[in-house]
Structures are given as C-alpha cells and as structure tokens.
Amino acid sequence: MNIFTSRGSATVDFASHEATLIKPREDVLRRKFRLDRLTAGERAHLKEHLFDELLVRTEHEAAKVNAIQEEQRDFVTSIRTGKTPRVDGAAGRDAIAVGEMILAKIEQHAWDGNAAGRQGPFAMPALPSITAPARWQEDPKPRRKAG
Length: 147
Fold this sequence. Notes:
It contains 5 helices and 4 strands. By secondary structure, the chain is α+β, with helices and mostly antiparallel strands. Strand 2 (8-13) and strand 3 form a beta hairpin.
C-alpha cells in the first residue's frame, strides 16, 4: 500500500511486515531547494546520499502477527471477561464509513480533468495518440489476398 501526503510518503508491505517512510527535507517541502545552485561536487554528493539527506528514508518492521486472528482473540476475550474490546462497535462502524467514503470518491473520480470523461475505479487515463509513420499507412495498390 502506498500513501502520499503533502509532507512525505509511506509504503507498507503487508507480506513482509515492513514499512518505508520518506520525508523530504524542510527546504524541499518549502520549495526552496535549488539544484541549479549546487556545485558539481555537491551534486555528486547528493546523488550518493539522496535518501540519507534530501529525501530521508526510514525503514520500520512490524511484529509478524495475523491481524484477523488477533482481532478474533480480542473479541472472544471481551466476551469471556466482559472487558471492552480494543476496537469497539463505534470504531468499527466509523472505519467502515471511511472505507465507504473512499470507495465513493474512487467511483466519482474523473480522469483527464474532464467530468464528462471516463469515470470510476477501472477507468484509465487517455493514452496519447501517436501517428503512424507514412510507410505504415495503407498502400493504395491492391494486393493479392491469401488463399
């Protein structure tokens, strides 16, 4: 899963239980970083240390647990002990509501900035038209058909 915000991005790999966070340096966020003002040496250094200094990348590892199984265990424990579950019904309802809002926005998404254009989660942006070279155009001379 990839998450992008105005302050950085996160990539979550659920299979490997790892997350990568990328947070741009403050001058990049404020659009004050000027590559054209760097010397050749500074550019070479930056090329080698891009993810250490400019776009700071941090790796995080999560505990390898089965989230669904843990949720079910917590639910059974709450029934047996009368203890409030970690996620109560109201929080579950709210999570479903947020998911429904996200799906509705995906369904309404208009590609190419055109409200009358293709819409929905499976629509794809228009690909640019490429004119075929003249040699690929149809030959005006009739050709013999096979068979």
